[in-house]
Structure formats: C-alpha cells, structure tokens
Write a structure and sequence with these properties.
heterodimer, A: 0% strand, B: 419 residues, mainly beta, Jelly Rolls, 8-stranded antiparallel beta barrel, 7-stranded antiparallel sheet, elongated
C-alpha cells in the first residue's frame, strides 16, 4: 500500500467522520435560518 | 572524452554541445526543449518545443564511473505504459558505446543492448545458456518527454511494443517498433551507487508495484493506485449516503396550502404538527407555487416548540419570471423553494407560515368583481418534513473525497509531461 493511499484512507475517514457528525447533530452550513442577501437588495430577474 | 561538436539551437539560439558527435541523430535543446536533427552538417529543427523536459533526475552532461567506465549522460527519456511512468537515461562513452540507466519504481537498472540475441518463443527465451521466463503481458510504451541527444530519431509520442523476461534480478527487455527489435539486458544497481557516482541525493521511500517493463533499453514503472483511490471514493460516498439516511430519520410530514396576498402579509397560518424524535434533526420546508409568473412570494417559517414556546425561524422564497428581449424569450427562477432548518432539538413543533406576494416589475392591480375589488393572491402549497437529508453536506463530502485523487491525477500528469 502506497503512502498516498494511506493518506487518502485517513482523508476518507476524516471526511466521513465530519459529515456523519454533522448529520447526527443536524448541522449544515447550507441551512436557511437567515434570509439570503439578494443582489442589490431587491427581487426580480437578475439575468440582465 | 571527446567527439564534442558545438552548435546553436535554430529555435532559441542556445549554445549546445553534441557530446557524441557522429553518433547522435537527434538532440533536444537544453534551453527550449526543441527537437533537433544533428545528423547533418546543418542543424535542422524537427519540432519546436516550449516545454523543456524538466524534472529528470539526471541532466545531460552528468558524468560518473559505473562498472569501471566513465559514462556521460547524453539523453533522457520519460516513458509511460498505461498508468506507469519511468525515466531512461542514455549513457555514452566513446570507447564503450552506449548504455542505459533506468529509473523505475525508485529503483535503478543498468541496461546493455544485446548483440547476441536471445532465442525462444513468447513465453521463454534462452540467452547465454540461461533460461528467462516472460514477466507479464506485452505492453505499449509511449515516450512522453525527450531531453538531450540520441542515436536514433526519437520524439514525444513515439510508441514501442515491449515484453519482459526475467531470471532472478536480471531482466531481458525486448522492444519492437518501426520494423526492428532491440534486446536489452537490465541489471539492478543500488541507489547508493548511483547517488555516489553522479552526486545525487538518495531516493526516498520505495514505491513498489510492478516489475520493470523494459523496452529497447529501458523500463519500469510507478505505483498506480489511482483506480483504487477512485474506487474507494465511490464506495465511501455511497456508504456515507446510507449512513446519513440512517442517522437522519425517522421521517414525519405535514402539509397545507396558503394564499399569499399582494401588498400585505398573511400571518400565522398553521401548516401542521411535526415531531422530532431524535436528539437533533433537520427539518425541510418545501414550497411549491402553482401557475404564476413574474411574481415572487416571501415565506417566513416559524417552528414553535409546544413545550417551551420557543420558535426556530427560517426563510424561503418562490419566484418565477419570464419575458422576451432582443435575444428571444427567457425565464428565470423556480416555483419551488426548499428551506432547510438545522439543529432542531427533540420535541413537538407547530409550523407557522407568514406569506406575502409581490409582482414584477410592480404589484398587479386589484381584480374588480361585482361591487368590490378582490386582491389577487398566489397559492403556495407547503410541505414540511423531519429527517430529511442535508444534500449540501453530502455534495461537499463528495467534492472533498474526489478532490484528493483528482489532485493526484493532476500531479501525475504534470510529472509525466515534463513538470
């Protein structure tokens, strides 16, 4: 087993542990507890 | 040593020495990497090259004494075979001729071209009374970088068919290409010896994987664990999804519809009751507007704990716009919006919604119906759910898991293509 494979396995363990902990505590950086900031502070189409 | 000829690179003007003048056919410019034809009195540019083949462990011109003969490194090749790559150095001595030094899998081999060719079949060959057995299948080796000078015409992209035979530490390499077959005997050389001979630092950790796969004068490989890494990343992301499903549940739903008025807010509409049965759970609230256009609806959610009266708030929006301009018709937004509420503790909750609709570019006028004017509304159906999956977390984990092998691929690509 190569060194980088060992490092990758550690990386997998770290990412999985972090993600599962976040799931257990129901934490996400993508939650919507705050109203999102809109461009220019107004609504409406923004495509042009 | 002598037989040196001074030339100027026709591409960059760099002053070059042909160290094996009269023998060398090709020379890669040490300054710009261009491939030159030095077999004729006038030097001809074969291929302008702006990425010099940097990163070789031995530079052309490096000298050292191996097996009691002083060798000068005149050329360097980087070659690859599927996922494996290795380096081959062409050594020259005016009296002894050419030899190869191969760096593969962090091991050195000294290669001598054979004049007395082995005999046998594809599986076994005999050479000088000894029997060599085939090691692995035939493979195609591709040259990926060229530096220095060579006694045959070589350029990046050249391929040869290679086959290896071994007996103990000694390997015979057969390479075929362009209608000729070359045999090379490869014997291992200690890293300490090479380091001392050429004044190099010692190689670091040994990366084993594959037997050397020489070819006319070279061979070997670099461990390729990339497929394993991608396989592990795929397995991990699937396992993570299953574990997240188990951790996030159980699921409970409540739903109702709300008519959002313009220029006003409909407040405190109760959608239903949800029970969070784990210590912490996510709650998602999905709003779906029915057929509306050039409107948006602001939604304020309040998840009120029946036991404590405390409220957890979240915000959502559904919006959809369309129009036509000089580029044609366009649409923007979505009539569906999902709001994720995190860190909701165990308990029973009532979900309340405040909703207000807006028009773009302005609110619509009230509709006249009989004697009174009725304000237009936008109907939005609301569905709340406990135990939902935080997909953002999962996608982030997927990105992090695949970033590692992707960076490894990029690094390997850079290594193989001249860094």
């Amino acid at each position: 087993m190569t060194l980088r494979l060992v490092l990758f396995l550690l990386w997998i363990a770290m990412v999985m542990a972090g993600c599962l902990s976040a799931s257990y505590y129901a934490w996400s950086p993508f939650s919507d507890e705050e109203r999102p900031m809109r461009a220019g502070g107004s609504y409406g189409p923004t495509h042009k | 040593m002598n037989a040196v000829r001074n030339i100027a690179c026709p591409n960059c003007g760099g002053a070059l020495e042909v160290r094996a003048a009269g023998f060398s056919v090709n020379l890669a410019c040490a300054y710009c990497g261009s491939l030159l034809d030095v077999s004729r009195p006038e030097v001809v540019l074969i291929e302008a090259h702006d990425k010099a083949a940097k990163g070789f462990r031995l530079a052309p011109g490096a000298r050292g004494t191996l097996f009691d003969i002083e060798w000068e490194t005149v050329g360097a090749l980087r070659r690859r075979d599927l996922g494996y790559s290795w380096e081959e150095y062409l050594l020259f001595n005016p009296y002894a001729g050419y030899r190869w030094l191969v760096l593969s899998d962090r091991e050195w081999q000294f290669g001598t071209m054979l004049l007395d060719l082995p005999e046998g079949n594809d599986d076994t060959v005999s050479w000088r009374g000894e029997r060599f057995t085939r090691d692995g299948d035939a493979s195609t080796s591709e040259t990926t970088a060229v530096l220095g000078e060579f006694y045959w015409r070589v350029r990046a992209g050249d391929t040869v068919e290679a086959m290896l035979y071994e007996r103990g530490d000694t390997v015979l390499s057969r390479e075929g290409g362009g209608g000729e077959v070359n045999w090379t005997q490869l014997v291992p050389v200690e890293d300490d010896v090479i380091a001392q001979t050429f004044g190099l630092g010692r190689l670091k950790a040994h990366r084993a994987v594959r037997e050397p796969s020489p070819s006319s004068g070279s061979s070997s490989s670099t461990a390729n664990d990339l497929p394993t890494m991608f396989g592990l990343a795929c397995a991990a992301i699937v396992a993570l999804l299953l574990a997240m499903v188990l951790i996030s549940g159980p699921v409970e739903r409540a739903s109702a519809s709300i008519d959002a008025p313009f220029a006003a807010t409909r407040e405190g509409v109760r959608i239903g009751t949800l029970t969070v049965r784990r210590p912490w759970q996510f709650v998602t609230v999905t709003a779906r507007g029915t057929d509306f256009d050039n409107r948006w609806v602001d939604l304020d959610y309040s998840l009120v704990d029946r036991a404590t009266g405390q409220s957890m708030d979240g915000y959502g929006i559904v919006e959809h716009y369309s129009g036509r301009d000089s580029d044609g018709s366009w649409t923007e937004g979505s009539r569906k919006g999902t709001t994720l509420l995190g860190r909701v503790p165990r308990g029973t909750y009532d979900l309340y919604v405040d909703a207000s609709a807006h028009g773009w570019p302005s609110d619509p006028p009230p509709q006249i119906s009989g004697w009174s004017s009725l304000p237009e509304t936008v109907t939005v159906s609301i569905e709340a759910e406990t135990g939902s999956l935080p997909w953002g977390n999962w996608w982030t984990a997927a990105l992090l898991l695949f970033a590692f092998p992707c960076i490894a691929v990029w690094r390997q690509y850079r290594e193989e293509n001249g860094r």
